[in-house]
Specification:
The protein is an alpha+beta fold. Among the domains are: about 50 residues, no CATH class; about 110 residues, Tetrahydropterin Synthase, Chain A (2-Layer Sandwich), CATH 3.30.479.30; about 35 residues, no CATH class. About 55% of the residues lie in helices and about 20% in strands. The chain is built from 9 helices and 9 strands. The protein has a 4-stranded mixed beta sheet with strand order 3-2-5-8. The protein has a 3-stranded antiparallel beta sheet with strand order 6-7-9, covered by helices on one side. A two-stranded antiparallel sheet has the order 1-4. Helix 4 packs across helix 6. The longest helix has about 60 residues. It is rod-shaped and about 165 Å long.
Length: about 300
């Protein structure tokens, strides 16, 4: 009696289906700053997989897949061009932020977000859950202020924006860690007005500086004049003291004595005229002496 053909096949041929089954058990990896879930034919397995490498379960007709989700902190920039009601002008600005996936909502993200090439990116989550909320809140808060208020209170405004956005994103898969307004582009008319105001302030400061310089110079001149007056006053007082001293010391006897000394000196000179001492004080003698001196001057010429 012939044995069934199946029993006559070599053993390794009988193992081929099982080898093919094992080949379907792919080796997969959850990279750092990600979490993963295994997607089966019946949906995701309940547990999440931390960063690691492992092999999926062997399969025959339907093979499991690994889906990863990025959970790292991310930086993001939102650009705005907003009509400012108080100024009736358009203003452009940026909102810079740092955010992260809220880990309490990881299961919800896997259930509601379709993966792309086996991964759910943080940008998908942000664009779906956070961007519409942030743009609405920022426009509502900024529109309350004038452009000048924004220019002078940016730090306060950034804090208000952060508080409003963080509150609005509670209960969503995205949480904001930092947020602030940046790169404000004011309307040209506002910029030009600020530039003119800055130029005026600069001119005023220059005038103040020049005034201070002139003030110092005038104070220096005043001090110099005070010193000169003090010196002149001291000289005058000194001269007065000398005059007073002379007035007290020069008597009639002293003058007579000095007159005799002068006459003795004149007597020794060849060019002399003897005049009685009593006549020295008369007008006639003075005129005669003057006339004689004029004649001598004329002869010399």
């Amino acid at each position: 009696m012939e044995m069934p053909k199946l029993l006559k096949l070599p053993a390794f041929l009988l193992m081929l289906p099982f080898l093919g089954l094992a080949a379907c058990a792919d080796r997969v990896e959850v990279p750092p700053a990600h979490v993963g879930k295994v997607l089966t034919k019946n949906g995701y397995k309940p547990s999440t997989v931390p960063p690691s490498k492992f092999r999926l379960d062997m399969c025959l007709f339907y093979c499991d897949k690994l889906v990863t989700l990025a959970i790292a902190d991310f930086g993001h920039l939102e650009k705005f061009k907003l009509f400012m009601p108080k100024d009736q002008l358009n203003m452009s600005f940026d909102i810079r932020m740092t955010g992260a996936v809220n880990e309490k909502y990881i299961d919800n993200i896997f259930d509601r977000m379709p993966p792309q090439n086996g991964n759910i990116s943080v940008s998908q989550v942000y664009n779906t859950y956070a961007q519409p909320v942030i743009r609405d809140v920022v426009r509502r808060v900024i529109a309350k202020y004038s452009i000048n208020e924004i220019a002078s209170s940016r730090e306060m405004l950034s804090q208000e924006l952060f508080t409003a956005v963080a509150s609005s994103l509670e209960g969503t898969p995205i949480k904001i860690k930092r947020l602030g307004i940046a790169d404000v582009q004011f309307p040209k008319v506002i910029t030009e007005a600020k530039e003119r105001a800055a130029e005026r302030r600069e001119l005023i400061e220059q005038e103040k500086a020049q005034f201070e310089i002139q003030k110092i110079q005038m104070e220096r001149d005043l001090e110099r004049e005070k010193m000169n007056r003090a010196i002149a006053r001291e000289k005058a007082m000194g001269q007065k003291e000398v005059n007073d001293l002379l007035a007290k010391s020069v008597t009639d006897k002293y003058l007579s004595y000095r007159t005799l000394e002068v006459l003795e000196t004149m007597a020794e000179s060849n060019n002399k005229v003897f005049v009685p001492v009593e006549a020295l004080g008369t007008i006639g003698l003075q005129q005669a002496v003057f006339s004689e001196q004029m004649k001598q001057v004329a002869r010399k010429r």
